[in-house]
Amino acid sequence: MLSRRYIIENQDEIRSNIRRRNMNINLDRFLELDEQVHTITRELEEINRQTNEHAASLKNIKASPSEEMLQLGRNLKEQRFSLKEKLADKEIELSKLHRSIPNLIDPRVPDGATDEDNAVREYGKTDKPEFAFNVRDHIELGEIHNLFDFSSGSKVSGQGFYYLKGDAVRLDLALQLYAMSIIEKRGFTIHTTPDMARSDIISGTGYNPRGEETQIYSIDNSDLGLIATSEITLAGIYLDTIINENQLPILMGGLSHCFRKEAGGAGRAGRGLYRVHQFSKVEMFAFCHPDQTEELHNLMLDIEKEIFDGLGIHYRIVENSTGDLGASAYRKFDIEAWMPGKNSYGEVTSVSNCTDYQARRLQVRMRSSETGKSAGWVHTLNGTAIATGRAMIAILETYQEEDGSIRIPEPLQAIMGKQKISL
Fold this sequence. Notes:
alpha+beta; eight-stranded mixed beta sheet; three-stranded mixed beta sheet; 41% helix; 21% strand
C-alpha cells in the first residue's frame, strides 16, 4: 500500500488515481482520521507525561498522600484508558481505509471505466481459425465426448462447480505439466501450494478476505480463506522478510486449485467452464529489485505468449485500462484467446506489475549487498501461466472437426497419449 505520508502529501494525485480507477473511497475520511490519530496521540503523550510526574510526586511524599493527590492519579488513569480506547478505534478505521487505497497507475495505462476501454496491443502468431461447418461450443463438445458433468457438480457443491471426466481430466493435467515445463525452463522454481491462507496474507496481496464484495470463500470459525490464486500463497512465503539484493529476482511458479465466488458473474457469457467457482491454475510470481520490474513484466508476458503460441491458439494482448485494474496493479496485460463457440475473445491470462504495493503490506524489504542495511521495498509481479478451464475452452473449440472429434495440440499429445479425442 502507499505510505500514509505519501497519501497526505499528494492528495490531488491520490484523488485522481481513485477517480481514474472508478473506485469509491472516502479519502476525506482517511485524512480526517489521520489528523484525529495524531491529535489523540499527542493528548495521550501529554497524559503519560502528567502521569509520570504524578508518580514521581507520590514517591517524594514522606507522609500519606492526600485524597486530592490520589483522585488526581485516578483521573489521569481514567483519561489514559479512555484515550487509548479512542485511539485504537480510530486506528482500526484508519487502517481499513488505508488498505483500501489502490496502487498508483503507470502513466502509459489508457484511461477508461470498463474492460471495453482496454487497448489491443498485438495478436498472436496463430491466425483466427476458420470453419466450413457450424461450430460447437465446449459444452456441446463435452456432451458428445462425456467430458464434463455440470449437473452433478451443481447437485453436490452448488452452481458453478463441475466434474471433469475422461479425456478432460487428461487434458487438464497435460496443460498443467506443459505450462510448468515452460516456466521451469525460464528459471521459475515450481511449487504446489496450500489451497488456504490466513486473512492477513490474503489482504496483504490486495484481496479483500471478507465483506460483501469479496471474491474469497472464508472458512467459518477460523482466520482462513480459500485462495483465489497461488499468487497469495507464493507471496506469503516471504511475509516479514528482508531479502538480500543479490538474491533477487526470486522467481516462483505455483500449482494450486483456485476458488472464487465470482459474484455478479452469471450470464450466458459465463456458461460452462468460463466462469466457475473452482479451477486449477499454474501461476508465476516474482520478488525483484525495482530496477528489474519492467524487464520481468515483459518476461512473464513473453512466457504467456510462448504457452499459447505453442498450443496454436489465436489470441490478442490487451492493456487494461485504468478502470479495469485491480487495486494492487500498477500496470496489467491480459491475453484474450479466441473462443469459436462464443464467437468472441475470452480472457485466459493476466500479468501484473504491482510495484511495492504488496511488499509494503506484507513487510518484504531488501538488504543492500554492499552495506548490509535496509535498501527499501522489493517489487512484486504475478502472471498466469495457464488457467486450465479457460485454456480448455479455447483448445476444444479451436481444434474441433466437423464430425465432432477434437484434435489435440502437438505439445500435449505425448502427455495425453493420443492425437485426437475421437467419437
